[in-house]
Amino acid sequence: MPRWSSPSICPISDHKLRRSFGGSEINNHIQWLIEHGITAEHIGELIAGLCDRLTADGFPIWRGSISMPSIHPMYGGVSANFVRDGATTIENAEYGSAAVLNFEKTPIYFLLGRGETSGRWNIAKGEGVDDYPQLAEFAHGGGTDHLVSLLEFPKEAALRGVSLSLTSDRPGGFSDDQLAIVAKLFPALGLACYRIAASKTAADILAVYTGAKTSARILAGEIQRGKGGSINAAILLADLRNFTALTEVYQPGEIAGFLDEHFELIGRHVEDNSGEILKFMGDSVLAIFPTDAEDPQKACMAALASARNILEANKVLNGQRRNDGGPDIGVDVVLHLGEVFYGNIGARGRLDFTVIGSAVNEASRLEKLCGTLGHHLLMSESFAVTSAVASECLGSFELRGVSKPVNVFKLAGTD
């Protein structure tokens, strides 16, 4: 078991604080934190501004950091790191990264485990240097004193709290007065961080579940049921071929893993070409590429580039999985062009921001022909004509729910 260093706690009376640092100065810093907590876009602005202000007041701050957990499918936490006379950086700690895996070797983890809200390590005397790699690094760079303060957010919030870390490189480090001032300022800093984190979390989670463009519309106030409008768009519908049969062979966890792998490559190539995924439907993906009234061909070519890249990437993925004894999973892609209603659909308390209309239904019906015709990529006539890509008509087909037969196309020269 490692020998965890106990931090030094140096309380100070308000009487001594008032003699050394006026209440008006503290109030000015609190006012600054509140004002910037309302307007700042990220916590980096707070740590940089606060450290600059305190340094101007004589605080021997060499490094400063704000760290918070994240509610994000890719990142476990975020930190903003200030360095005197250097740039302030933002770091997102990805799941599985060294920052996440080594969290147990940090002063913050030590304080959380003991239920304590603050700690101080005299780096110049070697406190914590043997236990925490970060403090060893600071000591090597000339650090002398390290302070950590923790603030817990409401227990019902998944954003559990915020930590403030300040490091000095001055002999003797921070004074008792300066520690007390930091304690006075920390609640206002925590409140500002909570506001920024709550706003960012709302935007991040909406983007994850609805797409970046759709989430921006929702956050702009388009949340009423039925609110939306008609747009013209290239529609991409991708479906995993014969995927249902795999559920009888593989365990649910394995099935979910296969889905994630294929959805990841589909999503990546849709987004790389300025499209947006609107819905995952079982083993299918619905995406749109809104058209420009003056140049509808541009959206079609973007959708076609996505489709081609998806099919090529799927071949690579299947080849990798085949080497591990896994299944080949084909992807069928249909491209269509038409008018859709883009907006809020659903019950009063549960909405879906998506597209509906005959064009969406036709794309869904066209997808069923991929297996019948033996092609992984099919196009509607409206898409083939507008894209002006070299294509071949496979014939005219009846589609369920569509009043007239439709002409179906494939790319010229493909099997």
TrEMBL record:
User: Which terms in the Gene Ontology molecular function aspect does this entry carry?
Assistant: adenylate cyclase activity
Signal sequence segment: none
Q: Which InterPro entries match?
A: A/G_cyclase, Adenylyl/Guanylyl_Cyclase_3/4, Nucleotide_cyclase
Domain (Guanylate cyclase): give its ranges. Answer: 234-367
Q: What Pfam families does UniProt report for this protein, alphabetically?
A: Guanylate_cyc
Known EC number(s)?
A: 4.6.1.1
Keywords, A to Z, come to: Lyase
Q: What class of enzyme is it?
A: lyase
Q: Name one GO biological process term.
A: cAMP biosynthetic process
Q: Does the keyword Lyase apply?
A: yes
Q: Cross-referenced PANTHER family, in alphabetical order? A: ADENYLATE CYCLASE, TERMINAL-DIFFERENTIATION SPECIFIC-RELATED, BLR2264 PROTEIN
Q: What is this protein called?
A: Adenylate/guanylate cyclase
According to its UniProt entry, this protein's organism is: Rhizobium johnstonii (strain DSM 114642 / LMG 32736 / 3841) (Rhizobium leguminosarum bv. viciae)
**Lineage of the species this protein comes from:** Bacteria, Pseudomonadati, Pseudomonadota, Alphaproteobacteria, Hyphomicrobiales
State which gene encodes it: cyaA10
